[in-house]
Amino acid sequence: MLASCSVTEQHIRGRIGRGELFFWHDYWMGDEPLVNRFPSFASSMILVSNFYQNGSWHIGKLNDALLEDVVTEIMKIPIDESRIYEAYWAPTSDGKFTTKSAWEIVRQRHSINFVFYSIWHRSIPLSISFFLWRLFQDWIPVDLRLKSKGFQLVFKCQHCNSKESLFHVMWECPLASQVWNYFAKFFQIYIIHRKSIYQIIWAWLFSSDYTKKGHIHILIPLFIFWFLWVERNDAKHRNLGMYPNRKPSLPKPKVFSWQKPLTGEFKLNVDGGSKYDCQSAAGGRLLRDHTGTLIFSFVENFGPYNSLQAELMALYRGLLLCIEHNVRRLWIEMDAKVVIQMIHRGHKGSAQIRYLLASIRKCLSVISFRISHIHREGNQAADLLSNQGYMHQNLHVFSQVKGQLKGILGLDKNNLRSEFLSFHELEYF
Ligand SMILES: [Zn+2]
What we know:
The chain is α+β, with helices and mostly antiparallel strands and 429 residues long. The chain contains 16 helices and twelve strands. The chain is flat. Residues 419-429 have low confidence and may be disordered. The protein binds zinc ion. Residues 269-388 form the RNase H type-1 domain. InterPro entries: RNase_H-like, RNase_H-like_dom_plant, RNaseH-like_sf, RNaseH_domain, RNaseH_sf, RVT-Znf.
């Protein structure tokens, strides 16, 4: 902490008031103390106020001590002797000190290692990311490693009876070669003469221009490592044998279905989203009665807003239409959990959305309502409308439902289930 002190001190700036700062040693003008430019004054502890005269700068004294260009700069600084010295923290936009900004200054940043960077992504389940992290650090306990630590074990590959090392399981084994070759051919990649796992992944990742995190080109080798490891463990601990083409057992698909509202109640499904770096936001909403019959559906292009604003706007416009249709009992369903929490917990929200939230609350005050979350997969109709919103200029009313939307509404009305499988549901540990 003390070692960091001298580093952070360099980012503190002072604003002169009564001039109680050291003229040569404090950071009261520019980005460095004056002593750096005038080292002959290093022993002087004179205060800034010594250069004041009747509320102004004493130009004669300044000229005696400094060069003309520095004097010119100082003369631009207004003197306010009614104020005391005020400290400013340079790294933040409001001048206030934050430990986070201080940490950013003192921390030692290593350059990003793309291999390790690529393993943390929403497309990769966390358990797999941790496995890969251990793999690339060579921390996976295969038999040769265990033997080197004194464990007496049979150390043979389950597939070919060769000595089992991590490199063998992941690369040298004929089974591994078969898997790598299959995918390498697919991506037109040629990886030869590799001597370590790190070299394999490095060669694969940089074999084409597609080095963006989360891209299929990046994900494939990572999943190959994972499934080779799963295959080895299944063979070793479950006696399932090792096969290059075994399909992983998948969990049961999750079932999402749309529920009809109660008799006399209406259901409003809304969805909003934003694209192109918040340059285009759109929303969709539809109201159905207890039989699942559509009362209205709208799509709307909101313009340049972020996703949260789009969700709130979709809800707000939907509520206005409900009030117009004299809806008194309403069940609101949306997939934006954050909005539901805001409504449930009475959040004030940020300044950016404060008026929008207030308008929504005003609408809700005249309706008997409940609001709940629905997975995007169950909110298909509103999701579809929201996506269509980008294609329209402003508000677009659907008087007749057709195409895909008609199909979705039919499924919802008849309580037919939609089945979805999320890769994030896969668990292997
Ligand atoms: Zn083998």
